[in-house]
Specification:
This protein has about 190 residues and is α+β, with helices and mostly antiparallel strands. The chain is about 25% helix and about 35% strand. The chain folds into two domains: about 30 residues, no CATH class; about 130 residues, Beta Barrel (Lipocalin). It starts with a helix and ends in a 9-residue tail after the last strand. Strand 1 and strand 2 form a beta hairpin. Strands 1, 2, 3, 4, 5, 6, 7, 8 and 9 form a nine-stranded antiparallel β-sheet that branches.
């Protein structure tokens, strides 16, 4: 027992002996805690800014942005034939008859996504609204290194989705949106 006390005392002795050594250790501990805090914050914030922005979907341009503690994906523009007013495209297939007269522009497609990716750069646990059939599905978002976002909606074990491409959106003088792809998907068949 005496040997154990002596061993512990000898181990702790440099820290107890002088206030200088104890101060250095405290500063090192403070620095370590600050580093851990900053590193954990860096794992959240860059991912959030990486996913925010405008995306070209198969039928629209969507803006993903923070809304409180969750992510929103609001439809900014609906892709329509020449001469058709995008505001005139309605949420015709919504399961709630009261919502069928609302325009698709402005609808939030995402619910329940916490703005944090897991280690595989994916987000799960939220839902996505599909205006094509008026239903919401369990969803998964996968952000790729090239900035593309794979969006999947699942019913039971069947999942379907599409890849959204990041775009830079500007408005020309007559009010029409101009979307320029930030990267290009490879389409060898085109």
């Amino acid at each position: 027992m005496h040997a154990a006390k002596l061993l512990i005392r000898n181990y702790l002795d440099p820290f107890v002996r002088g206030g200088f050594t104890l101060t250095i250790m405290t500063n090192k501990l403070r620095s370590l805690l600050c580093f851990i805090l900053l590193t954990s914050m860096m794992q959240v914030f860059p991912v959030e800014t990486a996913i925010t922005g405008y995306y070209l979907t198969s039928k629209s341009i969507v803006e993903i942005k923070p809304c409180g503690v969750e992510l929103c994906a609001k439809i900014e523009h609906v892709l329509v034939a020449e001469g058709v007013d995008p505001i005139s495209v309605l949420d015709n297939f919504n399961r709630d008859p009261k919502k069928r007269s609302r325009p698709l522009i402005g609808i939030d497609l995402l619910q329940g996504f916490s703005r944090q990716f897991d280690s595989s750069n994916s987000m799960k646990g939220g839902r996505i609204y599909n205006p094509r059939d008026g239903r919401s599905y369990k969803a998964k978002l996968q952000l790729h290194d090239d900035g593309n976002l794979t969006v999947q909606g699942c019913f039971l074990f069947i999942c379907a989705g599409e890849t959204w491409q990041p775009v830079t959106l500007t408005i020309d003088p007559d009010g029409a949106p101009i979307a320029v792809l930030k990267n290009k998907l490879e389409h060898p068949e085109w």
